[in-house]
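Purpose: get a first structural picture of the assembly so the mutagenesis plan has something to point at.
Setup: two entries, given in the order below. No constraints added.
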Amino acid sequence: MPQHDVRPGYPLTLGEEPLFCPACGLELVTRVLEEDHRPRLVCPEGHVTWRNPRLVVGTLPVRGGRVYLARRSIEPGAGRWTYPGGFLEVGESAQEGARRETEEETQLRVEVGRLIGAYSRPHTAVVTLVYEAEVVGGEALPGVETSEVRAFGPDEIPWTELAFTTAESALRDWVLAQPGHEPRHEPEMVVLGDPADGDL
Amino acid sequence: MPQHDVRPGYPLTLGEEPLFCPACGLELVTRVLEEDHRPRLVCPEGHVTWRNPRLVVGTLPVRGGRVYLARRSIEPGAGRWTYPGGFLEVGESAQEGARRETEEETQLRVEVGRLIGAYSRPHTAVVTLVYEAEVVGGEALPGVETSEVRAFGPDEIPWTELAFTTAESALRDWVLAQPGHEPRHEPEMVVLGDPADGDL
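Result (structure tokens, whole complex):
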């Protein structure tokens, strides 16, 4: 998830408000456009700088009924467990992005399958898609941004040591879809929280 | 979907490449950052301008086993049928955005329920979430960007007059989840196409 890193020399995070127009470099002001319903960032030339929520994509990689989770080595959620995942890139499909992030963070090769759920977090302007994936190769080893990769059975999920509320939601939905449970078709709970707490 | 409009005075679309840094207004260059895997837009001050795919959210509003579709009055897809939907805004949940767009475009009040599917279109860098919704009030009338709103039974879907491939995918998944069919748990097909054709 490089967009979360605070790198020396790259201080602009997506949470910061744009100040200058990316089309012409002039200063932005806030204005309500005709027939629009909320303020937008507009420059003196009339270019609009649209802002959009971001998409995180990830997988629950499964082999033999057990799900692989990764322990994060960086903030947010350092030392805690999550699905492998990260920000979707322009030009890749959600499934391709989920597979790429899984391979980067767990060194497992996977085939991406059904969507487990879409988890919306308006306080951080992120929507997370988590897919079930079949492990088809590789070896479970730490990769980018992770310190450990381990497989858990449905009764072994480290519920109190998860990095994000979306990991809890996706694992809950995965466990409920295992044999002996029915798949859920209920609406996803909307989680509200503090934009500063690093939750995704 | 105001981000699709070509408005006099607001020529910057999200498909255009940013030229100037939104943090400081300096010119952007393309560069691969340390430990990153693809080129990014960076200014001389070291600010990164991240680019992200966008999220479209919509509903299939259902009452008495029939689904309401809207006929679009603007491009792309003018004159053709679609789910009501549009771009998710910063600060709203996917479900809230889907409800807002539905009310704007069909004048129906809805309660948003289960996710029907997530449809990825990498050629336009859009991911679309379509929810099933229960109609709880309002009157089916054209609204913003629509010329007609009409209810269709599962056997009456205007398959050859749909505006977007995501409308076809979502309606296919909805029809297959009706009584007499089994809900699908297969991976969503990835649709490739021409970025210029206006498909979502």
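Chain A touches chain B through 66 residues (CB under 8 Å).
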